[in-house]
Amino acid sequence: MAIDLYYTPGSAPCRVVLLVAAALNVQLNPHLVNLRAGEQLQPDFLKLNPQHTVPTIVDDGFSLWESRAISRYLVNKYGGDSPLYPTDPKARALVDQRLDFDIGTLYPRFAQYFYPQIFAGASADKALHGKLQQGLKFLNTFLEGYKYAAGNEMTLADLSLVATVSTIDAAGISLQEYPNVVRWFELVKKTAPNYEEANGKGIQEFKALVKNLMPKSEL
């Protein structure tokens, strides 16, 4: 039985779940949610997720939201001995640290800097841009001496971070000052299962959204 996924493809957190499902060969039954039309506020959706956020999954009656929680659940239930979420305590802790860094630092710093520009017409904030650059510098340092984000094998950390980094890149923010990030980004694009279907298509939708909403003077 396929897992129901309520999602918006341009959303980085939604693409995390798509990437993880592709890596695990888990079948999803996709349900597009039009956030701008307020579909997430409909009573039926609120019964599944009172926070009315995407992504949300329903697996045999079990509802879950928050992309990294969903990712861990999918691996724990369907991953078997998958290296995506290692069982060794130290290896798993490193993956968790990278996941927490992504959701707590890197993605929020991007969102705080960029989304006001496309959704509210705000001017670019130099201080917020500097915080985002600092986040990318942290990631560049984390990757020093590592093939992937948390070691020599792909893990949930890579699939989460690549959704964020690809979104940063799609927003026109240069990664060239961070050679470890560039090298890692190219590697994950080549090696993440079904990358283009799971993440690449959503990136194109994100680019189209940015082009449509960004003030013309900024294009």
From TrEMBL:
It holds the Pfam family GST_C. Residues 1-82 form the GST N-terminal domain. Residues 88-209 form the GST C-terminal domain. GO terms for biological process: glutathione metabolic process. One of its GO terms (molecular function) is glutathione transferase activity. InterPro entries: Glutathione-S-Trfase_C-like (IPR010987), Glutathione-S-Trfase_C_sf (IPR036282), Glutathione_S-Trfase (IPR040079), Glutathione_S-Trfase_N (IPR004045), GST_C (IPR004046), Thioredoxin-like_sf (IPR036249). Homodimer. This is Glutathione S-transferase. The lineage of its organism: Eukaryota, Metazoa, Ecdysozoa, Arthropoda, Hexapoda.
